[in-house]
Amino acid sequence: MHKYLVGGAVRDFILKSKIRDKDWVVLGSNKKKMFEKGFLQVGKFFPVFIHPISKEEYALARTDTKIGKKHTDFKTNYNLNITLIKDLKRRDITINAIAMDKYGNFIDPCKGLEDLKNKIIQNISSSFEEDPLRIFRVASFAARLKHLNFYVTDKTIFFMKKMIKRGDLKYISIERIWKETEKALKSQNPHIYFYILYKCKALKKIFVEFYNSIKKKIKKNKNNEKKIINIFKININKISDISIIFALFCLKFNIKNIKLIKSLGRRIKIPLKIINFAILVFLYQKYIDNIKYKSSKYVINLLNKIDCWKRPYVIKKISLVKYLHTNNKNKRKLSDSFFFYKYFYLVKNIDIKNIVKKNYDSLSIRISLNNQRILYLNKYRNY
């Protein structure tokens, strides 16, 4: 049995990036031999196994033949005659089709090393269009590698457009679309994901709420790529919390009502906690404007509406969204998020023991605690 490190691990090794997962291709073996060595098979249809100790993925070398329109409609061939070269050539993009042997030698039949050097993301062959999920994978890679100045070739965009025009998007599992979206949102340049989807015409099919809000701006700047990219750009300042980043995009794309946020969430099957936070930001971030000049009663009532006493973490997150969404040139608005965050932490730890002793029912306790918070904040603000 011969094994080769493949895919993203080799790509990241060459780019000197953090290697998250190691995947291996195995030659000269079969299912029976893998089971005998203690490997566990993943799923029913593909010859992919989990190593009993390292838990890394080991796959028998294989080729895939498209036999239908769905993303699962592939005939897999993994007999002993399948070579490493054939396995590598079935992959999506050139920079993911490099293997490395145990001596550190690269096997590169698709010129992936050259494309890594030239910072190119491109498909291997016309078989790229057999799996429409590759549209979102390419867009995700474009976002994740943008900090290294990688770009998607026009040839690959052409194949992506071709799949969309043919109506292939309806054959993709929605969960898989969200998975690629999630990876892109965690990157340093998540806006590139949506830009590439716009460029290949997938944005208006899948993220229709985002597209409808910016199509006039795009039309106005249709001959200026740099300005179009800036239409998608948000300030994330090294934030990696997906709920914050998604909320920032909802603000950026001016999603004006809860129904639109929920509609997008249902279609892409976005986790409910992410959608709920975006709704919370939509409902309350505008009331933080000029909060330094609002009464203490106004501040405490706003905090009550957000229900932050039971979930204090949301105040920090809302403050971050407000800060990141605000134009850096507007120092007054930048201070709004600071004071909102500060006011909450001034009053959140008020001792309620004496309040409980003097009151006998929950309503009286809530009213007394609310008044105490207002008085404390007034004292701090010298009102």
From TrEMBL:
Annotated Poly A polymerase head domain residues: 4-121
Alphabetic keyword roster: ATP-binding, Magnesium, Metal-binding, Nucleotide-binding, Nucleotidyltransferase, RNA repair, RNA-binding, Transferase, tRNA processing
Keyword match Nucleus: no
Cofactor: Mg(2+)
Domain called tRNA nucleotidyltransferase/poly(A) polymerase RNA and SrmB- binding: residue spans: 150-209
UniProt-listed GO biological process terms: RNA repair; tRNA 3'-terminal CCA addition
GO MF terms, alphabetically ordered: ATP binding; CCA tRNA nucleotidyltransferase activity; metal ion binding; RNA binding
InterPro entries reported for this sequence: CCA_bact, NT_sf, PolA_pol_head_dom, PolyA_RNA-bd, tRNA_CCA-adding_enzyme
One protein family per Pfam: PolyA_pol
Residues annotated as signal peptide: none
Family to which the UniProt record says this protein belongs: Belongs to the tRNA nucleotidyltransferase/poly(A) polymerase family.
Protein name per UniProt: Multifunctional CCA protein
Organism encoding this protein: Candidatus Annandia adelgestsuga
